[in-house]
Amino acid sequence: MDDIYKQVIALQDKFRGYVDAPNDPRAVQLRNEIQALENDVQSKKHKFSIEDRIKRVLNIVLNLNDTTVMDFSDKDDLKDRLEELRQEVRKLP
Question: For 51-65, how does the pLDDT look when each residue is reduced to its tens digit (9 = 90+)?
Answer without folding.
Answer: 999 999 999 999 998
